[in-house]
Amino acid sequence: MSEYIMEVNDLKTHFHTKTGVVKAVDGVNFKVKKGEILGIVGESGCGKSVTSQSIMRLVGSKSSEHVSGEVRYHGEDLLLKTEREMEKIRGKDISMVFQDPMTSLNPAYNVGTQIAEMPEIHEKKPKKAAWKRAVEMLTKVGIPSSEKRAHQYPHQYSGGMRQRGVIAMSLACDPDLIIADEPTTALDVTIQAQVLDLLRKLRDDTGTAIMMITHDLGVVAELCDRVAVMYAGKIVEEGTIEDIFDRPKHPYTKGLLNSVPRPGRRERLQPIEGQPPNLQNLPQGCRFQDRCPFVMDKCLAQQPELLPAESEQHTVACWLEEEGQPDGDRGTRKNRQPEEAL
Amino acid sequence: MISYIIKRLLISIPVLFGISILAFFLVRLVPGDTVTAMLGNNYTPERAEALRAKYGLDESVLTQYVLWLKNVLQGDFGYSHFTNTPVLQAILIRLPITIELAVLSVVIAVILAIPLGTISALKRNSKFDYGASFAGMLGISIPNFWLGTLMILFFSLYAGWFPSGGFVGLYESVWGNLRSMILPAIALGTAVGAVAMRMTRSSMLEVTNQDYIKMARAKGVSKRRMIMRHALKNALVPVVTVLGIQTGYLLGGSVVVEQIFGLPGVGQLSLQAITNRDYALLQGTILFIASAFVIINLIVDIIYGFLDPQIRY
Predict the structure, then answer these.
(1) Alpha helix positions (H), B44-85
(2) Looking at the predicted structure, is the pLDDT value of residue A341 above 70?
């Protein structure tokens, strides 16, 4: 039990709108081990970000937002916590890094003050000590002359530096888990690599687990230990990085891998045809049925469960597993090496 | 910062110069002049000519302007022939009253606008929000002279809480001074407050949707701290703009309100000057109000620098 710091069971986040119920997250299960980097991959709108914000209880406060299930953090269900209790957990035990560093820092305060706020509110540190911590954090994330930089405002930072600043902020109280919601999407490729390096190095140094939310398989291959693939509000496949990249089971995972260009290969890219289903009007049965090349009668009738395939850690929600795999080459051209997936 | 202020003051010189031209010539377009107003029923062409010659009004308008401007640049704003006092002295005696009225109005406006606007934004589409919006529309629509008259009727005549007019100096009695100023300040401040409240609401709504507010929540900041520290400072920039512009109007509005409440301020002085065709006095007051406008705008721009670190001088 204690191996996992977080267990998410049957998490559902539904938005009640005028036109109907949007099932953004619809029964998601996953676990995060201490010190691991878990990737959550999927297309835009598949519920990755809503999952992360539901865990942090950043959604669910309005009457139109319904979050159910369990989010067990060290055994305690975060969904049952009061707002006050959540405030103590947010930032201190679980912190977040958002997608756009250009907008996630407050333009009205200098960066040092914003980082120092964390130890000030969570550890009741006096201002001076908190500021010292802020400068240390900036040094740690590789910002040169951090003493001077701490006094500067976000608009005086470049995009990559801002994201470093945000990461410094998320680390300031030594959290168990960092939820990084597409932290590199808004950055240049060279800066992306630096930020990913930084995240991995920080994990190695501090033992903080990271939940990496991304649509970029390159990022996953670069950084993650385990991967969960999400599609239309559900996890369709989960496993170690080798499981997913070398032995993908779900047609959607295969499709994702086939639609990423790789250097050195001159094959034509195979996009996944069609669009994800409307989250307000989900089909009966498997959610990938409209786009799946192997669709069967059973797929239209019944939703597959996430079940172990090959090994205990490699789980997949697909009827093909039960029925036996189709010929390996019908879905994927060839299995690819994850190292090449950039 | 200081070089910026100096630069701004230098830029305002041509503005004030333009205003001096307008003030001088517009006043002279009004039918009748100081002399006719002074003589009244005793008017005879001979007497009028004699007085005009005495005051230099028989010179060409252009000569008069150049002469006036030369004196103004030397700090001599002329002499009110009607009241027999130097213009500068007349204005300086009344200026504190107008400034106090303006400051008090803005303070009342801010005290009302910022909390109400903020709560409205946070409880969007609630009963509170609708109530505040309705009150805001009323506040914007009601003319200050009507509001002032009604307040005199209810709070002075019926309830007897406040004097119905007149002015008590701050040095005579602080309490008396406040009592004589509070109703006019409310009458003037209501519209300003209403506009500022609407602005605070919309600006707050915009800011609370920003990523850095979500980030603040994810940091574990309490809701209260999120609003007071993270949102408000950003939301206030457009509110300060509106308050600055409104404060300018407030100086104009005070002409009417000062009249209603019998406050001997600059507004009342300029009204007297118009009735009496008191050229020198009117030119002086217009120039003063214009300068006040310029200074208020400068203050607003300086406040920006404190609210938004991206603005540097």
Answers:
(1) 45-55, 61-73
(2) no
pLDDT tens for each residue of B147-187? 989 998 898 888 888 887 778 877 778 888 888 888 999 99
- Across the interface, whether the CB atoms of A103 and B210 are under 8 A apart is answered yes
* Residue A165 vs residues A111, A183, A199, A274, B200: alpha-carbon distances, Å: 7, 12, 12, 39, 30
The C-alpha of A161 sits at a distance from chain B's nearest C-alpha, in angstroms, of: 16
Spans of all domains in chain B = 95-270
Q: What is the CATH number of domain B95-270?
A: 1.10.3720.10
B220 touches chain A (CB under 8 A): yes
Which among A87, A109, A169 has CB closest to B222? A87
Asked if B149 is an interface residue toward chain A (Cβ–Cβ < 8 A), one would say: no
What's the confidence (pLDDT) of residue B40? 78
Encoded tokens for A83: 């707002």
Nearest CA in chain A to B221: A87
Determine which of A87, A127, A151, A178 to mutate to test the interface with B (most B C-beta atoms within 10 Å).
A87
Kindly report the average pLDDT of chain A as a whole number: 87
Q: Considering chain B, what is the average pLDDT of its residues?
A: 87
Contact A121 B220 (CB under 8 A): yes
Among B211, B228, B239, most A C-beta atoms within 10 A, so best to mutate, is: B211
ipTM of the assembly? 0.80
Q: Does B306 touch chain A (CB under 8 A)?
A: no
**Which residues from B are below 8 Å from A96, CB to CB?**
215, 218
List the 211-250 stretch of A: residues with Cβ below 8 A of B. Answer: none
State residue A338's pLDDT score. Answer: 45
Tell me the sheet residues that pair with A95: A178
Q: How many CA atoms lie within 13 A of B131 on its CB side?
A: 6
Instruction: Quote the minimal CA–CA distance from B305 to chain A in Å.
Output: 10
The pair of structure tokens assigned to B130 is 């609708």
What domains can you pick out in chain A, each with its CATH number?
A: 4-224 (3.40.50.300), 230-340 (no CATH)
Tens digit of pLDDT for each residue in B252-267?
678 888 888 888 888 8
pTM as predicted: 0.79
| SS3 assignment, position B249 | helix
- Find the helix or strand (DSSP H, E) in which A234 lies: strand A234-240
Q: Which of B143-147, B158-162, B200-204 has the lowest mean pLDDT?
A: B158-162
Q: How far is A241 from chain B (nearest CA, A)?
A: 29
pLDDT of residue A38: 95
Q: Is residue B179 within 8 Å of B156, Cβ to Cβ?
A: no
pLDDT, position A335: 43
Query: What's the pLDDT tens digit per position in B288-310?
Result: 888 888 888 888 888 888 888 88
**How far is the alpha carbon of B148 from chain A, nearest alpha carbon, in Å?**
39
- Between CA B270 and CA B95 the distance in angstroms is 11
Q: Does residue A12 contact residue A27 with C-beta atoms inside 8 Å?
A: yes
User: Across the interface, which of B212, B218, B233 has its CB nearest the CB of A95?
Assistant: B218
Alpha helices in B209-278 (DSSP H): 211-218, 223-225, 232-261, 266-275
Dihedrals φ, ψ of B159, to 5°?
-85, -30
Which segment of A222-226, A321-325, B4-8, B57-61 scores lowest on mean pLDDT?
A321-325
Q: Coil, strand, or helix at residue B51?
A: helix
